[in-house]
């Protein structure tokens, strides 16, 4: 017979151990932060992770096509009531952004044009810390834990690469649940954990348009076919489409971030180019956008007697928390940190995440950890992706303990 420590005992020892480990986790985070890497190839980051995991007694493997790291911890407490050994996946992404850091921090990036501006250095360090905490408790763990150290979250779909390589079946069978967390440079007071059941982040898609006209002299537009007014009308029509075609309680976002045409004021260009990012919070709206946005663009161009070459590319799906797994994660966070440290979010965030790929395959939850430094207003501070975004080291112990606690509580539930 096994006796399990009470929830209160487990909480105290976990928080104490995470606090004791915090200097090492912080040191790792600073080393990662100084040397950020972008995309799917993160050799120096991978090296630091492997160095940390060495000696913890995990089954470690590295990606075939990327610099991912998958580590499996085998619990010693055996199978659950049904005779199966449960398993849970914890994910931390590791990549940085093409941003030149302007925080002035002592441990700021030394790589020109690269910065951990989305806080993935904290995710990596906290997940590594959780591997240490959990491996010290392996004898009491009633199941296996998969640590998913993922490259290429920022637009490279690294999660898909790791899923293709079998991360969800790393224990030798499909994991029963998956959890992830994301630090936030704004959003709430530092140390708060936030989340919601169901849709928690938007889907994303990309729209590329070339309005094809016929260039000519700026003084004689009647002899040319000017793509510029058509491009301007397309942008206006998109905004009207957003406000008129969608339920105000199921909104969408379309932002035209690129608009390019012409070389000189007296030359009518052949083409005008624009690009937009497209976000939705429901499958229904996502489908309406994919179906109607390209035809809207073509129709406006046609009204000017012009063609438009349109490409519509789906990027990340909606990030959807399984309601049951979300409740479990919320309970774990409340028990670990106290009720006041967990906040239910009324609405999703309008960012997108490739952890959505994992949640599409396995029930799980994605929560947010505010890393706003003390005394800073979360409403006005520089947000994730800003060259001035600052993530407070103080949350590292919290995030490390939270990762570990999510796994421990989920394994107790069974397969
Ligand atoms: Zn990001
Ligand atoms: Zn991120």
Structure report:
The structure is a single chain. The protein is of the alpha/beta class and 415 residues long. Helix content is 35%, strand content 23%. It contains 9 helices and 16 strands. It has helices at residues 7-34, 43-53, 120-136, 158-164, 227-245, 283-303, 323-337, 355-361, 395-413; strands at residues 59-62, 69-74, 87-93, 144-150, 177-184, 193-195, 198-201, 203-212, 216-217, 252-261, 267-268, 271-280, 307-314, 319-321, 342-344, 364-370. The strands form 4 sheets. It has an 8-stranded mixed β-sheet with strand order 1-2-4-3-5-16-6-15, with helices on both faces. A 4-stranded antiparallel β-sheet has the order 10-12-8-13, with helices on one face. α1 (7-34) crosses α9 (395-413) and α5 runs antiparallel to α6 (283-303). The longest helix is centred in the N-terminal third of the chain and has 28 residues, at 7-34. The two termini are 19 Å apart. 48% of the residues are buried. The protein binds zinc ion (ZN) (2 copies). The site of one zinc ion (ZN) has 4 residues, from loops.
Layout of strands and helices, then pairs:
Layout (H helix, E strand, L loop, with lengths): L6 H28 L8 H11 L5 E4 L6 E6 L12 E7 L26 H17 L7 E7 L7 H7 L12 E8 L8 E3 L2 E4 L1 E10 L3 E2 L9 H19 L6 E10 L5 E2 L2 E10 L2 H21 L3 E8 L4 E3 L1 H15 L4 E3 L10 H7 L2 E7 L24 H19 L2
Parallel strand pairs: 3-4, 3-5, 5-16, 6-15
Antiparallel strand pairs: 1-2, 2-4, 6-16, 7-14, 8-12, 8-13, 9-11, 10-12
